[in-house]
Structures are given as structure tokens and as C-alpha cells.
Amino acid sequence: MGRFTGLIGILLILGVAFLFSNNRKKINLRLVLSGLALQVFIAVMILQVKPVERFFTFLGRGMQKLEGFAKQGADFVYGGIASVSGSGITQNYTAPGAFVFAFNVTATIILVCVLVAIFYYLGIMQRVVAGIARAMNFVMRVSGAEALSNVASAFVGQVEAQVMIRPYLKSMTRSELLASMSGSLACISGGILIVYVNMGAQHGIDLAPKLIMASLMAAPGALVISKIVYPETEISPTRGRVKLQVKTEYSNLIDAISRGAADGFNIAMNVIAMLIGFIALIALIDWCLLKAGHVFNPDFNLTLDWIFGKLFYPFAWAMGVPAEDIGNTATLFGQKLTINEFVAFSNMTGGKVPIVTEKGMLIASIAICGFANFSSVGMQIGGIGALAPERRKDLAQLGMRALLCGTLASYLSAAIAGILATTP
């Protein structure tokens, strides 16, 4: 079975979506099949077409260089701080290879947000998003609003993507709204993607092609799953057309750079706060679970990782993860869903929850590459609700369905990539 075990995973994922569908008779089979075909096409191009694979590898090296540029800015601020290397040697923060998570990661996020703001001011971002959205609209026959939102989510944050469709939010159908929320949860912004690429590079792991593929596959994947869970039964105002109506909010280039840096700082501080809070909470819960487990058996070390490993084991196995990695991959699935993807990526790349096979790394990386977790649902309800207050009730009602769709979309991409992978 080996390589084709992932087919079981695809059937399982689609089956779960079908089980939670609110109107099974209205599922658009053409949309589902075209979306799956688009995902397969993206995976084949990146995994098996050598020129394309080399291009994305080259792009990944460029992403890694961004960290070096960001560090030059951070060095001015943090240059006098000493850090401890992996070998235990104390060195200046500016030394080659020195890495302090709070400094390196936040600097990279700020730089990428500045670049996105510049591209946005120049109109480049809008043109790229609109072009890809038109192609997806042509293939899948989805509405313009949901195509734009899902494609934008692969470049900018989950709430920022909705800004691009702000004029349509009031009139979007509930099916469109769920599709847009699902896409934002299944995708990951360019800034965070680059952070994960560099986290892997610090430990000699090349994640760039895998994560770029995950981000590209997530847009059609989220539409496939969301349209099974909540099929379209209304007439969309943007049906059959893609028109981007976003005007830049920046007065000039300097304003774009300044506000991009400020936005990046806010995102970086939010990441740091979430990590401190969640990791501390995990430590507390693990301590309580450990004590509870020892009541029944002194040798039973009950932890959240142990629980996640059992709960998500069937998905990891069905998606084609090699036997030696199934337990740890399942643990990462649980950490990503219930805590956040930062913790999962940090544990995977840092070796706390190691993945030892190339295929296991491919599947795990794609499956946890997305914003689908409980805290992100709250961020979406608050963020999109501020853009369209009259839709807040719909957002709240669709929140958990969006989490399900975003999670299944990432799993679907991972299962497809696992089947097409040429390495064990």
C-alpha cells in the first residue's frame, strides 16, 4: 500500500466534510473535482517538475536571506546583547549564526510586513492576487469575492485578506463567508511562512518548497472543503466575476514603510505574547495531567502530547505518514489545532517532537502550515466583525465550521502531497 495510503486519508477527509455538510444534495461535484485537480496540479508541478522545484528552492534561499537583512536592523537595537549558542558558548548577538527567537523572528516579521506594505502601495500585491484569483475563478467557478479572499490569504494575514473584499462583506452569502473564513484559516501569511522557513534552516531543514506548496494548495483546498460543508444555495452578487476594489490606505511610500513596520511590530508582539501564554499554560496542564496519571500508575506520564498522539493517530496514519513518524505527527496535529502552529513548528524543527523521514516531514509540514486553531477563530470573528459589524452573528455561528474546514483543507493538501512524493 505504502505510497497510496494517502488515498484513504483523502476519502477520510472528504467523508468527514460530507458528514458535517448542511445540505448534501446541493454539493457541487464539478467544483469539488476541479478544486482537487487544481491541488494535484500544484503538487505535481512543485514535487515532480524539476525546473519548478529548483525555482521554489531558489525562492526559499531568498527567504532565508531576508532573515539576514532583518537581522541587520535588529543588530542596531539588540547588538549589545549576548546569546548562548547551541554548544553552550556565550557570544554577541551579532555573531554569525547567533539566534534568539524573540529578536530574530520579530525582526523578520517586521521586514516582511514593510515589504508587503510597499508592494501594496505600488499596486503590485493587488495585481498578483487578482490575477491568481481570476485563474481560480475560471477553473472552479467560484464567486469573485471568495476567490479573492482565499488567494489573498496566501500573501497577507487572515484578517488583512478580508480587507481586500471589504466592499462585498455585507452582501456575501453565508456559504461565501464560510469559504473566506476557511481559506484564511487554511493558509498562512507570507511573513509567518518566511519565519517558519528560517526556523527550519536554523536546524538544517529545508522547508521552503513544502510550505510554499502548502500555502498555494490551501486556497483551492479550503474552497473544496467549505463547499462540501456549506454548499452554495443563493445567488452571489460577485458570481462569475473577479473585481478588486481596494484603494491603498497609504499617503506615500514613507507612510507605507512606517505603517508596515508598525503593523509588523504589533504582529510580532502578539506572536510573542501568545507563545509565552500558551507554552506556560501547557506546562501547567501537563503538570496537572502528570500528577493525575501518577495517581493511577506511578509509571504513567500523562501529558497533552500523549493525548494528542492518540486522538490524531488515525488521521496521521490515513494520510500516509511512515510508521516511525505517525505518533509524533499526530502530536503535532494536536498542538497546531488546540494551541497554535508556532508551537508545532518550533517543536518539529527544534527536535522536541522530531520527524525522521522525508515523507513524514513533507506531510507534517503541510498539515500544520495554517492558522486553523481556536484562538484564530476568535481573531477572525473580531477582525472581520469590525469590517462588517452586521455580519458578526453569522461569523460567530460559522466560526467552528470554519475551523473544521481550515483544518481539513490542510490535511487534504498534505495527503495529496504525500501520495505524489518520490521519497520515502
UniProtKB/TrEMBL annotation:
The keyword Transmembrane helix applies. It is a multi-pass membrane protein. Its main location: membrane. Residues 211-418 form the Concentrative nucleoside transporter C-terminal domain. Keywords: Cell membrane, Membrane, Transmembrane, Transmembrane helix. The chain crosses the membrane at residues 6-22, 29-49, 98-123, 177-199, 211-230, 267-290, 302-320, 362-388, 400-421. Residues 8-80 form the Concentrative nucleoside transporter N-terminal domain. Residues 103-201 form the Nucleoside transporter/FeoB GTPase Gate domain. InterPro entries: C_nuclsd_transpt (IPR008276), CNT_C_dom (IPR011657), CNT_N_dom (IPR002668), Gate_dom (IPR011642). It is found in: Cell membrane. Belongs to the concentrative nucleoside transporter (CNT) (TC 2.A.41) family. PANTHER family: SODIUM/NUCLEOSIDE COTRANSPORTER, SOLUTE CARRIER FAMILY 28 MEMBER 3. This is Nucleoside transporter.
